[in-house]
Amino acid sequence: MRRVTKLAAAVTATAALALTTAACGGTSTESSGDKGAAIAYDVGGRGDQSFNDAAYAGLQRAEEEFGWEGQDIEPSDGESDADKASRLKELARQGYNPVIGVGFAYADAIEEAAEANPDVTFGLIDDATVEGDNIVNMVFSEEQGSYLAGVAAAKATETNVIGFVGGVEVPLIKKFEAGYVQGAKATNPDIDIKRQYLTQPPDMDGFSKPDLGKEAARGQLDQNADVIYHAAGLAGQGVIEAVAERDEWVIGVDSDQYEQKTLAQYKEHILTSMTKDVPDAVYGLIKSVEDGDPQSGVIRYDLSADGVALSDSNPAYREMTEVTEAVAQAKEDIVSGKIEVRQTP
Amino acid sequence: MTDGGMPVGTARKRPSRTIDTERLVLAVGGPALALAVAIALTSAVLLVSGRSPVEPYVLMVEYAANADIQVLIVNQATTYYIAALAVAVGFRMNLFNIGVDGQYRLAAMIAAVAGAAVTLPPVLHVLFIMLVAVLVGAFWAGIAGLLKTSRGVSEVVSTIMLNAIATSIIAFLVLPDQFGEQRGNNLTTGEIPRSGWFPNLDAGPGGEIYGFIVVAALLGLVYWVVLNRTRFGFDLRATGASPSAAAASGVDAKRMVFTSMVISGGVAGLAGMPVLLGDSHTYSLVFPAGIGFTGITIALLGRNHPLGIALGALLIAFLDKASATLDYNGYEKEIATIMQGLIVIAVVVSYEAVRRYGLRRQQQRVGEELAAQSGAHHQNLSKGASA
User: Fold this and answer.
1) Looking at the predicted complex, does its ipTM rise above 0.90?
2) Is the Cβ of B154 closer than 8 Å to some Cβ of chain A?
3) Which of A67, A72, A180, B308 could form a disulfide with A146 if both were Cys (CB 3.0 to 4.6 A apart)?
């Protein structure tokens, strides 16, 4: 009986909604409490084997250490800044602190939410264009790590042809391309670099559809590329698969893909990975809030503090001393400022 | 895909009020039935997965009681409404403009560039940006119209392809080498000066409602008047119902196809304006995409009628925005997506069911009237004979 009336109420209220806009006084952003940290994902959400998962890994680590259960929320398709701002404010209202937006898409929304919630710390990954006392901008020098990937590829290739597969052609991924190309050319000026992007924004399939990555990688392999670097999130799995089928080398991205369980059957072909330490950045921010001394302002994660790095978990890679030495030398030169890496190709 | 109402051309006199009420019941019955079926099916899905079949609705309605969420819903509905009107213009003409998505994005992008490039007094500036958007949208849809009239290319195929081409053109134009500016990891077209902003309506604690909602409502009114009260509208509906019959009565069908495609595109061009003029004031990588496709759903749902579309837009926007709360309460917000899908299927099925029912009723009534008439006629005849 009660169910029926509830349903009836729901249906009538839905219809009535059309007529009663803004009739109610309250807003969804009132009250507060302490429930730990929350992250709001970019397109793709949890399970992208990449960026969003890395942020989640940081949250999980904090959950284990501090014993609360955080929140992680995915976006919906075609949403605007207002929806993102609403999501962040709602998380803050529910008592989550810090609230972290994954990806530059959250920039304007974070600015608005941070202004409305001065007591909550907001984290923003991959963007430093908006500022505030309670905003922490976590930015990474992807071009530096990618430079090392370029050096490794140029040293490891036998055909003198290497490849780059980018997910979606956005400025962020172009930083990967820029560093990679510069590193490879610096190592061998005559090297032939095949570059391809899978999709154009706002079509984000290039970060999520492995078949697109597979096709692009096969094309580059057909053109004699024997080392391919991918910066394509989940679509990069297709790249890894295609390269493994032809028994060549692939360079992973974001996390150490040699260690990733879902990729275990291809691991011997993963030469190295350009890691971006999003988990540590997220965990660091949460810890600072838990410790009562929240971070603030722009925090840059670069080669010098291993914010970005080239992994060496594949034993085959460690045995290639010529490659590892060149990479170590390049790293030293970048950290010392001898080499400046470009952010645009 | 034509209007589910009366067939065009049989502009017979309305015999009585009872039939009017019946038409109204039939018109409302379709969507109501569809909604009920969709809710029932969604509840079934919830039950099967071991959840409460009612709580998600209650949560969503409670969440939507907040003023700020209502503002989000109304703003989203404004955008949806314009996109759906654009689709509906095509539907009335039996044209399936799937290209609304590309048309509004390209229009918004170029209008944003143009708006940021010029300096004009307040009202003129907004009108200028809107004009650019309409022209770009009309131009992009016009290509599909031209291909259809000159080469017989199906507009379904050409508009889908034009969507992909628009995506690539935008991606090219938004680069810093062309018209774009890089801002962090984002690409924008630069901010439109304040004189080119459309003033928003203050909704108190809920935030601001897009002032463009007024334009959207006016568009709906114009759409209704033009279609139902002008020669052009009649020609358009006639051509949609039967191209050959319309041609026989002197309508240039090809011209109608082209014109309605251009109008559809022009309206589509405005779909990005609520966000552009009322909120973002720039076109960037995070500009909302995919609204054109939602517009198709809503035009179907609203039976191409401006009021129906308004209700449809509000319903879909409600499901979009209120579903956010499900994630916080242990449900998946995809429940709302399932519901949207079910609504579309249910709408198509129930409209067809209602249409057949209406047709049967009509046949029955005509049969009865004919029987009565011929009976009377017969009587008259026998009377004459006996005299």
Assistant:
1) no
2) no
3) A180
pTM strictly above 0.90: no
Which residues in chain B are closer than 8 Å to A21, comparing Cβ atoms?
Answer: 70-71, 73-74, 203, 209
CB contact under 8 A, A81 and B279: yes
pLDDT confidence of B229, banded at 50, 70, 90? very high
B315 close to A (CB below 8 A):
yes
Distance from CA of B7 to the nearest CA of A (A): 30
CB contact under 8 A, B289 and A200: no
Question: Domain residues for A176?
Answer: 142-275+314-336
**Domain CATH code at residue A259:** 3.40.50.2300
Question: What proportions of chain B, in percent to the nearest 5, are helix, strand and coil?
Answer: 75, 5, 25
Domains in chain B and their CATH numbers? 67-330 (1.10.3470)
* One domain, residues A184 and A68: no
Establish if A15 belongs to a structural domain.
no
Write the pLDDT tens digit of every residue in B60-70: 999 999 999 99
DSSP state of A264: G
For residue B181, give the 3-state DSSP assignment. Answer: strand
Q: Chain B closest CA to A256's CA: distance in Å?
A: 24
DSSP A259: G
In chain B, the residue whose alpha carbon lies closest to the alpha carbon of A130 is B184
Do A86 and A165 have their domain in common? no
> Which of B33, B175, B286, B329 to mutate to probe the A interface, most A CBs <10 Å?
B286
Provide the angle, in degrees to the nearest 10, between the axes of the packed helices B122-151 and B155-173.
140
Asked whether the beta carbons of residue A82 and residue B69 sit closer than 8 angstroms, the reply is no
Provide the number of structural domains found in chain A.
2
- CB-defined contacts A:B, below 8 A: 152
Q: What percent of chain B stands above pLDDT 90?
A: 64
One domain for residues A105 and A196: no
Q: How far apart are CA B45 and CA B356, in angstroms?
A: 29
Q: Cβ neighbours of residue A324 under 8 Å, at least 6 residues apart?
A: A312, A317, A318
Helix (H, G, I), strand (E, B) or coil at B208: strand
Calculate the dihedral angle through the C-alpha atoms of B315, B317, B318, B319, rounding to the nearest 10 degrees. Answer: 90
A260/A288 same-domain check: no
Same domain, A304 and A318: no
Q: Which of A21, A80, A201 has its CB closest to that of B70?
A: A21
Q: Within this chain, do residues A224 and A299 fall inside the same structural domain, yes or no? A: no
| Same domain? A192 vs A104 | no
